[in-house]
Amino acid sequence: MDNRPKRSMDEAASFEIGSVTSLKEEPTQGEEENEDYEFVSKRRRAPGSLSAANEQHLADWFAEQPCFWDHCDANFRNRGKKERMLAKKAVEVGMTGEDLSSWFKSMRTGYGRLIDVIRYSEYF
User: Fold this and answer.
1) What is the pLDDT of residue 15?
2) From start to end of 8-92, where are the E strands?
3) Is the Cα dihedral 71, 80, 103, 95 positive or negative?
4) CA 97/CA 90 separation, integer angstroms
5) Which residues contact 83 (CB under 8 A, 6 or more apart)?
6) What global pTM score does this model have?
7) 3-class state of residue 23 by DSSP
8) Whole-angstrom distance, CA of residue 118 vs CA of residue 108
9) Which of 66, 43, 57, 40 is nearest to 95 (CA)?
10) Choosing a second label site near 9 at 20 to 30 A (CA), which of 41, 50, 69, 92?
11) Calculated CA dihedral for residues 38, 39, 41, 46, nearest 10 degrees
12) What angle (nearest 5°) sits at the alpha carbon of residue 110, between those of residues 116 and 92?
């Protein structure tokens, strides 16, 4: 059985998806005050800003590591090896492996979008 306090439709409609909100609920009969409920956005944090020199260094490093971008590379599907490589490189530039992976994916996506615009503009 669900023992959570029921909310009215007005309360439910007042929440924004992805917003960070604290809500203190009124205690129900026979209960102490409930804990604060916090709704946290699912959006990831942006990786820390990098200097132009660090960005160029990382771009050169990724260009030398085909396991991150070449589907034909023997280690392309080896997640463990790639995670270890990212963690080691991230320490060198003062980031986490997850942030470095996010940065690379962001750069790759941006590059792909630019290429698509160029290809599309050639037809018109």
Assistant:
1) 40
2) 21-23, 37-39
3) negative
4) 5
5) 97
6) 0.55
7) strand
8) 15
9) 57
10) 41
11) 0
12) 145
Q: Which amino acid is at 123?
A: Y
Q: Is the dihedral of CA 66, 71, 75, 77 positive or negative?
A: positive
User: What does the alpha-carbon distance between residue 20 and residue 63 come to, in Å, rounded to a whole number?
Assistant: 39
For 80-100, the pLDDT digits (tens) are 999 999 999 999 988 888 999
Mean pLDDT of 8-13: 46
- Per DSSP, what are the bridge partners of residue 37? 23
DSSP codes of every residue in 27-81: PPTT--PPPPEEE---SPPPPPP--HHHHHHHHHHHHT-GGGT-TTSTTTT-HHH
Adjacent-strand bridge partners of 21: 39
**Look-up: residue for tokens 């990382």?**
58
Listed by start position, the domains of the chain span 9-39, 52-122
Enumerate residues 6+ apart whose C-beta is below 8 A from 41. 18, 19, 20
- The residue among 66, 96, 97, 92 whose CA lies nearest residue 80 is 97
Average pLDDT for residues 40-68, to the nearest whole number? 77
